[in-house]
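Record 1 of the preview.
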Amino acid sequence: MRESRKHEHIAPLWPRWLRSPALFSLYDSIMDRWHNMDELRRFSRRELPEKASKILVVRDRGFGDILQLTTILDSIRTRFFATRLDFLTSPQGVDVLAGDRRVDRAIPIADYPDGVEDDYDLYINFHIFPNSAEAVRAVKAMPENKIVGRTFREGRDEKWYEHLAGSCWLRKYCRIADVEFTPDLPLKINIARDGEWEASRKSFVRENMESEQPYVAVCLGGLDWRRNYAISFLDSMITELEKHWPVLLVGLKSDRGEAEREELSRMLKNHPQLLDLTDRLSLRELLYAIESSSALVTCDTGPLHMAIGVGTPLVAIFGHTPGTQLLGPLKTSDKHAVITPTTGCKGCGFRFRESCFESKRAECMERIDIAEVVCEVRRFYRA
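->
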């Protein structure tokens, strides 16, 4: 259980009577002010130069994080008067960032340093945790005195990330780069489209998504069990959605555990009309599928940010994290909706019940009102 909580700035299991989103928000605000005044400056802002002509941004895994980072790239350029900004990332990230005007060059992280000749004035590492061997290797090869963010050097910064208080990762990234965060930033993701995009998307739809009515896309979930809904909930939700619209399923089955994959196989047999595109799409094709759908229903994972980036109406299901804090004013948007569970521990910010850790299932995600999901999809659905 301790291992599951190692990324928190504190890790108590809060008493039930304290499990209030308002109290958690107040706590995060207090911690935010405290750390900004003390530790965060010492760890993250002490070495920031006034000017840096050439900047290399680093973020390997986590496609949602990569997309969110694109919203602050222009601010980074302005903050450091940069004339060149390159992005070191995963092959999937390179595929999507290749046509983005905010990035001069998207570089596969495996190519660094041998395939990169430029000597940068500043390296901004947004890969906070050592969960990528490629990211750790690349950052360790960079000049330590030019790195902002985690350097992965022992004894220097193994605990600095604990001082990036708050639930919103984009807010943390803004602190690292010393640029301004505004609540609407997560809604400003805009995925660049090259000249072949529309023709390729239409071709993909003809080959894979032919239907008399537009599909409602449903995401299977992500790697983090704490953000996922149970397969049983997914089954019930698809059953209700199929009463009204054709449904397609996207995502990776490998993101789920072995027992869940077996449960998913049984579930798919009960939905012969469901268009199952799991494990079949490239990243670009996943973007085509989401853009061509009438709405996307998903938990907190990469496709959520993709939907924002391509302008598809979004029904976002949040359990342990307060969705309006993570994604800005979604509830007031005419294209996005946040649905949270009808339980007292919602928005607990990873401070789970003991039973959640024992079962590796977030109980709050099983208390989502499916009728509310259908209602929001109906509001967005375009025939």
